[in-house]
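#onboarding

Welcome to the new folks! Below is a worked example of what a typical request in this channel looks like: someone posts a single protein sequence, and someone else replies with the predicted structure as tokens. Don't worry about understanding the tokens yet, we'll cover that in week two.

Example request:
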Amino acid sequence: MFLAAAPAWGRPQGQLCLTCHLTHYAERGRCSDCHHGNPGSERKNIAHDGLRAGKFVRFTLGDRAEKRERDNLIDQRACRRCHVSDGRGNRLAGSLDEAAVRKTAGELAVSIRHPVATMPNFCLNEGQITSLVNAVFDGSSGRKPVETAPVKVHFSDSGNKSEDIFSKRCGSCHRTLTERLGALGTGNSGPNLSGLFSQYYPKTFKNEEDWTARNLGDWLKNPREIQVWARMQPVVLTEREMAELVAIFSVFSGVGQNK
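Example response:
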């Protein structure tokens, strides 16, 4: 239930946002506990600095059904194959737990809506984007910042990137983020293969099995023997080329993975 804005003498100390905004969920504490911002100023540009709109703080209400929906969405889109979220995931790209502290809700939404070249475009609707932003904030809640080495950025001006086996044999259809070589591939017609061998990659091999070096080898020999609807043609690799490809897909800096 929404109540009228509290008079000046009745406002809790430091919650000057109630000068303009109506009170709601008063039992949950200070406005900034959910919405952030700066409740100690009546100047809009200061008070709204870092403010989170109501739709981006729905996770604070503790609705279990919505939480399951958020968790399912982040699992379905396999965000953790590249990012750490809620303390779990691969460190192939920036930590979402840390991004929740450094970025505004609007910036997170834009990064999902208009992904960078190495990130899959999931073509989510606005409701799903809002749910993912809530999931990122929810996963970071109560977590202390962890000092980690920055994610390495590999630029394409070295002249050697196209010589790796992935770029030569897979990159025209696929993309992937790797620990050793950074972003590889230029294609979008095939799935993004980032984190392929980790527990966070979707179980899309036969019978919902994980992707392993052995399973990948079987797939490359004859994709249609694994999935009759596969459009991909067989890829013949030497033992040395296969070993190089397996090394490219290997992930060593995952967090919260089963050993």
